[in-house]
Design brief:
With 202 residues, the chain is of the alpha/beta class. It folds into two domains: 9-77, Roll (Ubiquitin-like (UB roll)), CATH 3.10.20.80; 94-194, 2-Layer Sandwich (Translation Initiation Factor IF3). The protein has six helices and eight strands, in the order αββαββαβαβαββα. The protein has helices at residues 9-14, 44-54, 75-95, 109-124, 143-156, 182-192; strands spanning 28-32, 38-43, 57-62, 69-73, 98-104, 128-134, 161-170, 173-180. The strands form two sheets. It has a four-stranded mixed beta sheet with strand order 2-1-4-3. It is elongated, with a radius of gyration of 27 Å. It starts with 8 loop residues before the first helix and ends in a 10-residue tail after the last helix. The relative contact order is 0.10.
Length: 202
């Protein structure tokens, strides 16, 4: 439980953090008990007294409501759980990162091999890849050559990934989405969540 007479460092820094205890400015609040029970609208001083009596904090959970909604809770535990949810959200966002690799239709074999290597590394890291084949000039009238290149690429990366979205034309380009196999993605996720074991996260 925090000191009821002083503002938290977070609230002093930004002014947008959750208000707690005596930081709450409203004269009255709609109070929710620690188990989610509705106590009703009470003066903020009464709510603070109730918080003190049960050894909890008064936390403003809906500041824009009229009157603001406050809940009795352990604010330290609340911040910890919020931080865990934020980390999980960031981890989920990492899973949906879409990398992009571009090919020209008339690509040099060495350049093709380099770009294929990039795709394989992205897949191994657990990322999806948007593969684009640029069609220029007369090439736009022969998209089957672009489809042939993408089909060849799909076969060559099949050990790590699969075609999630088949090749389709978008403007002048052919676009194909490839994704890592589930086992590959899970292995990448495991590496990202074990940096403390000495293995650097990706």
């Amino acid at each position: 439980m925090i000191n009821r007479g002083s503002a938290t460092p977070e609230s002093r820094r930004t002014g947008t953090e959750t208000r707690v205890n005596k930081e709450i400015r409203a004269r009255e609040v709609r109070l929710v008990g620690p188990e989610g029970e509705q106590v009703g609208v009470v003066p903020v001083e009464q709510a603070l007294t109730l918080a003190t009596d049960v050894g909890l904090d008064l936390v403003e959970v809906a500041p824009n409501a009229k009157p603001p909604v406050c809940k009795l809770m352990d604010f330290g535990k609340y911040k910890y759980e919020t931080a865990l949810k934020a980390r999980e959200s960031r981890r989920n966002q990492q899973k949906t990162v879409l990398k992009q690799v571009n090919f020209r239709l008339k690509i040099d074999p060495n350049d093709y091999g380099t770009k294929r290597g990039h795709i394989l590394r992205f897949l191994q890291a657990g990322f999806k890849v948007r593969v684009a084949v640029w069609l220029r000039g007369r090439e736009q009238g022969r998209p089957e050559f672009g489809h042939r290149l993408l089909n060849t690429l799909a076969e060559e990366i099949a050990e790590l990934g699969f075609v999630e979205s088949a090749a389709r034309q978008e403007g002048r380009n052919l676009i194909m989405i490839v994704a890592p196999h589930r086992t590959v993605r899970e292995a990448a996720d495991a590496r990202r969540t074990r940096p403390e074991d000495g293995e650097p996260g990706l």
